[in-house]
Design goal:
The chain is α/β, with parallel strands linked by helices. Helix content is 32%, strand content 18%. Helix 4 packs parallel to helix 20, helix 9 packs across helix 13 and helix 9 packs parallel to helix 15.
Length: 697
Amino acid sequence: MSVTHFRACHLCEAICGLAIETEGERILSIKGDAQDSFSRGHICPKAVALQDIQNDPQRLRQPVKRVGDEWHTIGWDEAFELVAHRFAAIQREHGNNAVGVYMGNPNVHNYGSMTHGNYFLGQLRTRQRYSATSVDQLPHHLVSLWLYGHMLMIPIPDIDHTDFFLMLGANPIASNGSIMTVPDVGKRIKELKGRGGKLVVVDPRRSETAEVASEHLFIQPGTDVALLLGLLNTLFAEELTKASPALDATLGLNEVAAAVRPFSAEKMAAHCGITVEQIKQLARDFAAAERAVCYGRMGVSVQRYGTLCQWLIQVINLVTGNLDAPGGSLFPEPAFDVVSKGRGGHFNAWQSRVSGLPEFNGELPSAVLAEEILTPGEGQIRALFTSAGNPVLSTPNGRQLDEALAGLDFMVSVDLYINETTRHADIILPPTSSLEHDHYDITFNNFAVRNVTRYNEPVLPKPEGALHDWEIFVGLGQAFARVNGQPARETMPPAEMVDLAMRSGPHGERLSLAELQQHPHGIDLGPLQPNLLRRIQTESKKIELAQPLMLQDLQRVAAELQGLMPQQGELRLIGRRHVRSNNSWMHNYQRLVKGKPRDQLLMHPRDLAERGLQDGQLVTVRSRIGAVNVLVSATDEVAQGVVSLPHGWGHNRSGTQIEVAERNAGVSVNDLTDERFFDPVTGNAAVNGVRVEVVAA
């Protein structure tokens, strides 16, 4: 007899509701949950492939130990003891910082990693901690820490109520939203346009979202800062600013207005490829809209002015009366309120050993991980722990990191696969699959366009001898404590932690784990509402707008303006997203890689002609750090001077066990991105706007 289970998909940020039909332990179908009020039955191909992940014969199910070129299954207790003894010995000999940590993106999609990761990792007491955050969204967090007092107080576009949506460097039709949890975004965009609203997309590529926008403006990679400065300057110069409660609670507005005065639309237009009149009209239309929101995502963050861009976006929303206002940008108030439960974060309390880049909330920029392994001296990383990460394919200059990992004394990975990174591990500890454990979305409810909550029961039973990720962290932590002669801390399952957090949260009078278990389709807690002034966590309880590092960074822009736009014949590289892919680990499922190849280099026909190249030809793409050979596809969906490669491919390294991915290897864009090319404010990797040349292979 078949049974239908209801749960949310947590492969990406959209957390769409699913209806999963099973018979015994066999999955019969995966469909959208029409009764989920948030996703409204929406589903994408990734969710359907959950069954492929579950059934993949190459997914690891027991701990393995590398012996030469072979992998041998071992028991959990043996694995925990081996890891604990090796890490403890390395730290005794070389210091705590000799052990490094890298946490990949899927950790924030898995609440067991969120609640229990530090049960073990905190005991390492290392400053050599890294994550995908600094190849992705670090500018968002730092700006929120500065302006609002907490790194997770990130205002979210109120897409369901706005009249004018200005979107830079984002493609939610492909991504299902990013730092904007927005399932069924295509329908929401239709509804926006249907009520007379407008979506304007600014992007170097005419993306899937740009195709359905009211207007698309091409921009050269890395020049968004010039557009944003031109917009803000126009708002001040033409007195288009609006009073608001948030503006009344702001410090430093006059200082900011004076600082952007030199950056007129007339001066900025030549540096971003958007005309003076377009910049000015965009500012006027934005200011004239009753409810408007400016939002910039991946393409804006991962460039050399990523932090400054995110700051300027906040200033634009603030001065037009759209910060903390319906239809503008609002702060979610989820059932599990991470803002009230944790500290706001810290910045630049120490710096990286070799390049001196700043830490953020205890993590150093991932761009320096390889040099911290390769450079001898006190504090050199000699052992590494990774969890759900593949930095060889997902961080700049992956080849250099590949070389660095090969020279480690010891490496441990919590992962489902032997991939391009974990092939270097000595021990791999695989957790249960997505469908074998329960889940509550701690992270992405905090970024959702509505306040929602949902507890997800496991669909399939936990296999005998398997451990959930949180149990792995507890096992490691207990073993490490024993080796060091310390008592192990008591803990509780993640679900109990969530229950306590909900009961003491903003909706605690009506929410508990037991209540959520009675609502398998989730509970809608209503639209986002203004709440910043009662929740702001800066010391002054004001929006601290005139951040010294941002005002200082404007001087960098002024000094580098002439280099913003590509020079004659120069090409700049950007990435791109596809709805069937999220990160490198999703390429081992035929359902997600079938169809037309998605790993080609996109290039404008005029750029091809100028170089004597043709559509479909094998070309060599070169940057400062390396070269790749790839098929080129001619298209006018990228601006002239722009070439595009997708992220996460490059499954052509030996020693992996991901056969489907290997048959569809592609090339890694991070064999071209440059670890020396970053935002100097934060050290966040600048993987967009890398200078490259393209020649016949």
